[in-house]
Amino acid sequence: MLKIKKYLLVGGSFFLPFLLLAILWFSLGLAPLGNNNLLVSDLGTQYMPFLSAFKQFFQGETYSLYSFSDALGGTILPLSAYYLLSPFNLFVLLFSYEQLPIAILLIITLKISLMGSSMFYYLQKTYQRSTVATLLFSTSYSLCGFVTVYCLNFMWLDALILLPLLILGIQRLWDQQKYVLYSVALFLSIVTNYYMGYMLCIFAVCYSLYWYYQKTDASKKKSIWQFLKEGRLFFVTSFLTGISTSFILIPAVEGMLATKKTNFEWQTFLPTPNFGFSFLSQLGLGSVNFEWRLEHLPTIFSGILMVLLFITYFQLSAISKKEKIGAAFLVGFIFLSFWLELVNTIWHMFQSPAGFPYRNTFIFSFLMIKFAYEAFLKLKDGAKLTFIVPSIFSGLLLFGYIALKFSKEKIFLLSDYYVVISLVSIWLTFGLVVLIQKRRGSKINGLYMILFLVVCSELVFNFWISFKDIPFGNQEKFAQTYQIQDKIISDLQNEHPQLFRIKQTIDSDAAGYNEKNNGYNNPILYGYAGVSSYTSTLDAKTQDTLHALGLYQKNDRRIAYVDESKVINLLLNVNYQLTPEVKSHQKNISSDPSTNVYENEEAIGMGFLVSKEFGDLKLVKNQPLKNQEMILQQIQENKQGYFQETQKVAWTAQADHHYTLTTKTTTDGELYLYAPEFNWKKITSFRVNGEKIQPAVYIATNQLFNLGYFKKDAVVQLQLESEKELEEKAIELKTLQQETFHSFITKQKSQAIQLEEEVLGTLTGKITVTDSENSLLYLAIPYDKNWQITVDGKKVKAKSVLGNFTGIELTSGKHQITMHYQQRNFIVGVLISISVLLSVLFYQLIKYVRRRKSK
């Protein structure tokens, strides 16, 4: 009977948060309980497309570790290490692609519910006492402030499931010399998300220090040296477990070093405070909503009851001074980790977070609930909850709200009503706990039910506040658009087996998004070779190269192909454009009325022959039109030039920062605008001949604009409205000569190579070199030392050309090119991981044999 009760309680720790979330999802109308979905923020632009790639990998025909869907192409391991290694992601295999938002909601729900189970298990095993009331503590952990604000970044939630198990493992290691639970929890923490795993590694050392000093005999000599000496098992286990994750850690570090995350800002290493007393306001309800998800105070909300009991912990005489000091030091250090910018930066892998600050606050909530539970057990044993506790809590909360109201962070104050509700909840909870202590028999069950109702309502209400203003996506529209786009792309890929790239634009509303959907990761979502990308693992050299050619770079994590460019289509082999816009000078080959498909004749292949001097070209920063002209001239010299400047007629400034630039074209072709001095954030309106220019991507910084096709001597009028004064300087307006460029393409087609992608990502193609002057094969593939390249069966070395593309030197005659991607560091990592595993197994076998012999 006792076992059944234990199982019921463990089950309850999962199903209680699950039920509360189901009620919340239903109230918000989230699919499948409604038609809303969570295609917002990074979840809609990053995580959902990445899960689509995850599903494609397991259900596709290729199992290559290289993908052409991620920017221009790259290894999938760094991206997988950060986003995709949670075992929960396997649930997406049970859903169709258009149902991915529903699968994500299920994953989030399961992760949050399992947090309750792992926390309950920790409390049960640590204190050997668990009742129905324990569910209040495990559920408070499940629905703590960190979860309500950061659950859309659901790849971080595995760490919250593993944290209680990790801490339980540390306790067993120090108390019983048993290391299996700790080792497994630490291994999973690093593998599922090395970023959060890094934080848990730091905390594992902190908690080990706490546990060692708390549990060792008072008469025993204590010192750091003694801790290191007695903690040999802890440190050896930690080291070997860390090394055993090399199979994913080494490629992840290699990928990280290739991004711009290696750039350090010295200001983030100053010991400056990040916030003041306004921090105390976060102990109450309604501290953060969707609008302030990127910038806010630390999300330490853990429930009114938890804070009440946490304060009680330091008030009870039944708890020793030694325990209180230990708890204060541990909680204080975690508080320091997000209060001081220096420590906060170290905790975040030496990089100050770009949005979503204080990502380790869940550890603070865990400790608050842990010590609250210890106080609860003392109250059950007869200790009294005094009037001073809710008074202190109310005072701290009011002080925090007043400090917030009169500080620079006052914008974070959502509503004064939430202050009142929090104060009422404090005294109501206090009253219920006091009554429970005084009552006996059946009446106590009714009071516990009321307490459960109050705590659960408060947790759901706080969650609802953070979610209610989310601009939810439309699941029905998303599913319809996905099916249409997927069919168009599949038909194109089936029609042309060679490797080519696509530029795809989808209207945000049609795609089921309520906020602006920039479509950076559409190539990953739909599984085609693209150009745009938005990931934390974006290769810095590739990004710089594309930006130099004219692509839009908002920040270190984004690159976007916004406006069409014929030269870029040539260089990157962008064969098709999918767009809702109508292009009058091009033929639409789509049969679907919602999407126009245009074939780019300038996309002649994934590479072509150029002169050897082409390999010496250096792209100039922030001069894309100059770079494009230089590239075309190097391939085929043209004395007149490929780009022709327009004839400037007039620049006029009207009132209220309204400006008009009138110009006349000097040739037939597409007209390009580059204005590096303009602050596009401040441009409120941009029209060309009265027609509004509305890029598919939100433009915050500079980029190369394609203003459309114009005949020679056409008068073009640019109208700009700005929030600030504009000056006419450094404005480039140039037309790419249609006939000259067409002749260029016709001649270059005979020197192009078509690559076909085979199983396991091997690329093959044939090329004939007829002119020894043009014997360098330029490939529209990012340079990577992991490419194994053979020409006619003989291994050759490639070199980096034109920024970060691949160049192969050839001799005259016909050649068979084969490229196979083999990530050496991944193989090294796998060998290290296997070696550690075999070594530990061998050591355990020797121990077992010796034990048998001694018996």
From TrEMBL:
Lineage top rank: taxon: Bacteria
Keyword NAD attributed: no
PANTHER family given in the database record: INTEGRAL MEMBRANE PROTEIN (PTHR38454:SF1), INTEGRAL MEMBRANE PROTEIN-RELATED (PTHR38454)
Keywords from the named record: Membrane, Transmembrane, Transmembrane helix
UniProt lineage: Bacteria, Bacillati, Bacillota, Bacilli, Lactobacillales
Organism of origin: Enterococcus silesiacus
Pfam families, sorted: YfhO (PF09586)
Protein name: Bacterial membrane protein YfhO
Transmembrane region(s): 7-28, 71-95, 102-123, 129-149, 156-174, 194-213, 233-253, 297-316, 328-350, 356-373, 385-404, 416-435, 447-467, 826-846
Keyword Nucleus: no
